[in-house]
From TrEMBL:
Gene3D superfamilies, sorted: 1.25.40.390
PROSITE patterns per record: PROKAR_LIPOPROTEIN (PS51257)
Organism: Urechidicola vernalis
InterPro entries linked: SusD-like_2 (IPR041662), TPR-like_helical_dom_sf (IPR011990)
The protein, known as: SusD/RagB family nutrient-binding outer membrane lipoprotein
Length: 492
């Protein structure tokens, strides 16, 4: 009897061991398979999050503390004013700008690009749309820092690359243009059902508008190369002019932030430290009786438009009565104000520049210039009679030498880019217009650049310590890690 019990016990143990081993094998197989089981991941939320982050990135500290002041649109109060003095020592801010774009846009969009190219989840339409977002995100990063991780950038999760190499800005630009071209070719004849019918926060799955934005972005990049590679610039421009571009404010790329406090400029206008609009910006608008003045700038307590001068040293600033100056306009800085990424007015101004410089056609240049002004005025719902009056003013007609016409063009582009201040600063760096003179006035702070407009952000100490070999190679190619080292396309 005892032997029978022992036999039964042994059989039971064998069965249990077999069951456990089988279960462990199944579990181990699950563990081996799950990291690659992308079929259970929906790329739509990742895409929507990346697209929203791209728009909100136009409101980050790269715009608020740096570009908006470098572009002489406004002056910020308290310690946020320090970049306006062209000083340095903003290591944490540089790191935040850099990582914010990679973690907010690039990381998520890289996951989308992987998911939409895997055999189980392949979707060329979604992949093409996502590539447009990726191109715009990478363009923003490289335009701020110069050389950045690109071919290996943002791939820490998808490919386990933790110390990505840096690519030259020339390579990045050429590749971004190729990627945009491929996206345009796919989206022109794509089935919208394969896009993001319920998850597109930009164009609500309107593929025609995606094509127009992709091509307009390609045109922006082409004109960035005007002074460094004019031959390639003209070749890409010709391609862009053969495809649909943004031609109407219905094509504008904008988003309204509905979460948290809404548009970040609202908190900056109403909170601390405050923002006061620039003397240079107000002076340009007032001097030409520009009807956008009341949109972009609030009147001060006395009912006037009063600007704050950029670049004052601490003593002069203390005597400037900063608090009494004009605030940012409410249409730009309400909770539900539109966040603009790209507009038809910008594209008309680029086309006017092309007609003037590449085509030597001043008549077309003037017509496109006027269309750019009109599109900008209409974008801000300026009254029709005021639009007619401003278009009849001398400001709305290109005159003088080619250089003088370029300055007119550049100044109107600078105004029309409001409130995308990051692009405004980038535009000034590329064209030299409007002219930001080197500071010589004793009341103005010369900072770390001897009074010359800063041209880039710095690689942070964190980046230098965590990815130092690759960052150092970029510095050796590009030039010193200083805010007055020009980036690749900045040759004007």
């Amino acid at each position: 009897m005892k032997n029978l019990q022992n036999i039964a016990y042994k059989v039971l143990v064998i069965l249990l061991v077999g069951f456990v081993v089988t279960s462990c094998e199944d579990t181990l197989e699950d563990v081996r398979e799950n990291p690659n089981n992308v079929t259970s991941i929906d790329d739509a939320p990742l895409f929507a999050n990346a697209a929203r982050s791209l728009f909100n990135g136009t409101l980050d500290e790269g715009s608020y503390r740096f570009a908006g002041q470098y572009g002489h649109y406004y002056v910020a109060g308290s310690t946020a004013r320090q970049p306006d003095q062209y000083t340095d020592g903003f290591d944490g801010n540089y790191n935040g700008i850099y990582n914010g774009m990679y973690s907010g846009v690039i990381k998520h969009i890289e996951e989308v690009l992987v998911l939409t190219s895997e055999p189980e989840t392949e979707n060329p339409v979604r992949h093409a749309i996502a590539d447009v977002v990726a191109a715009m995100g990478f363009a923003r990063i490289t335009d701020g820092f110069g050389e950045v991780p690109y071919t290996e950038g943002g791939k820490g999760k998808t490919e386990d690359i933790l110390t990505p190499k840096y690519d030259t800005q020339e390579f990045i630009y050429n590749d971004l243009i190729d990627r945009l071209s491929q996206s345009i070719n796919v989206l022109k004849t794509a089935d919208p059902a394969m896009g993001y019918p319920d998850s597109d926060p930009v164009f609500d799955n309107d593929l025609d508008r995606w094509v127009r934005m992709a091509n307009s972005m390609r045109l922006r990049l082409a004109m960035r190369m005007r002074f460094v590679n004019p031959t390639l610039s003209q070749q890409v421009v010709a391609l862009c002019l053969s495809e649909p571009l943004m031609e109407d404010n219905a094509h504008n790329a904008y988003m309204i932030e509905t979460e948290g406090q809404g548009n970040a400029w609202y908190g900056r206008r109403t909170g601390f430290p405050s923002i006061k609009m620039s003397t240079m910006f107000i002076g340009q608008l007032e001097g030409t009786a520009d009807p956008r003045l009341s949109v972009f700038v609030e009147k001060d307590g006395n009912g006037n438009y009063t600007g704050q001068k950029n670049g004052l040293n601490d003593e002069a600033f203390g005597q400037s009565d900063f608090a009494s100056k004009s605030d940012m306009g409410i249409p730009l800085s309400s909770k539900d104000s539109k966040i603009f990424l790209m507009t038809a007015s910008e594209i008309y101004f680029l086309r006017a520049e092309i007609a003037l410089i590449y085509d030597n056609n001043p008549t077309d240049a003037n017509n496109l210039y006027r269309m750019g002004i009109e599109a900008s005025l209409e974008q801000w719902d300026i009254d029709a009679a005021e639009i007619t009056s401003f278009l009849a003013s001398p400001t709305a007609t290109l005159t003088g030498s080619v250089d003088e016409q370029e300055e007119q063009l550049g100044t109107q582009m600078w105004i029309a880019l409001t409130p995308n201040y990051y692009e405004g600063w980038t535009h000034i760096r590329r064209t030299g217009y409007p002219v930001i003179e080197q500071r010589t006035d004793p009341d103005l702070e010369k900072g770390a650049t001897n009074g010359i407009l800063p041209t880039r952000f710095l690689y942070s100490s964190f980046e230098m310590s965590s990815n130092g070999t690759n960052a150092s190679e970029a510095i050796n190619r590009q030039g010193a890690n200083k805010i007055d080292t020009p980036i690749w396309w900045d040759k004007n």
